[in-house]
Amino acid sequence: MKKSNTHNKQQIGLRAFKAYYSKQFGEERWNSLYKSLHLPKKHSCLLNKYSTIVTNNQDLGLPADAKQVEFLTLPCLSCDEEISHPSRDDSNLVLNYYVLDAASVMAIEALDIQQKDNVLDLCAAPGGKSIAIMQKLSLVEGTLQCNELDSARNAKLKRIITEYVPFAYQSKVNVTRKSGSLVFNFPNNFYNKILVDAPCSSDRHLVQNADEMAKWKPKLTETLALTQLSLLVCAMEKVKVGGTIVYATCSISDAENDGVIEKALANKRGASCVVVTNEREYGIGEPTKHGWIVLPDDKKEQGWGPLFFCVLRRIESAVKEDEFNDSSSDEEEEGVQSDDSEENK
Ligand SMILES: C[S@@+](CC[C@H](N)C(=O)[O-])C[C@H]1O[C@@H](n2cnc3c(N)ncnc32)[C@H](O)[C@@H]1O
Question: Where do the record's region annotations for Disordered lie (predicted)?
């Protein structure tokens, strides 16, 4: 009896999920995408610049056929076989690579990190994208703040940083545990690069997990979109004029991707930003209204993603303080004021 109840719930969730996304993507694309979401996740390994074990596949402990992911410039290898655990470098005790989806590295390359940048990784745990940021950033000339609200995940983030950064530089990475939606948690006029890798519906994980699928309803993606909007609006206010934000999710939902960008751009309370996603080219994936998305049924290289990202640049605000006060006094803007209740749990 109990078993069939669980099965029913899973079927209801799955039906709602399929109906929602076949409407967004159209029947034909959705069928191909849905199938590809079931493929085993593809992995690549991003080499750690702080490790001296970076000479060849054998030294790295990788299969002989592991090769550079062509659409990336950072040293990142992939192969058909599963990638084994990284090994520790005897000389400075760091791990030699980090295993992650190559599309995540693409999002970091879109942030165009320079050695002297002051970077905020707003939602950083477990830390894969922070490790990718460090591959470009100098921890001597630049700064990196890795923020994560959830305490268990924050602890994991700290552990990952100690595993990948040599002891001498560990104090240069500032790990904080603040709500990324609250502007007063972060200094003004300091960061010139911000990554908002927002909590999202993780649809590939969902289709491979029947228990979570049983809980799926459209409200889930709509609620997440509100949290995502509050994080992005905070980042827009905190990035310096001329600075860059990459907003990313591993969701396929328009509501969590372009929908959030659209609301953030229209938000009168936030700072002014323009979308600059198209200023560079990306090897795989496809354009969306404001961003870029890598889906696992990609025509060129199947299996990576889903990963959506949008690149935004802050500009001088065209709206004067008085105009802002006049127009904002009598309107409530969706999501922006709502802090994450998680902090108060
Ligand atoms: C997609 S994950 C980040 C993955 C990470 N960037 C990486 O590459 O390993 C999103 C993270 O945001 C955290 N989060 C959720 N709400 C937050 C908030 N208000 N402020 C900061 N972090 C938050 C979640 O706990 C989760 O760890």
Answer: 321-345
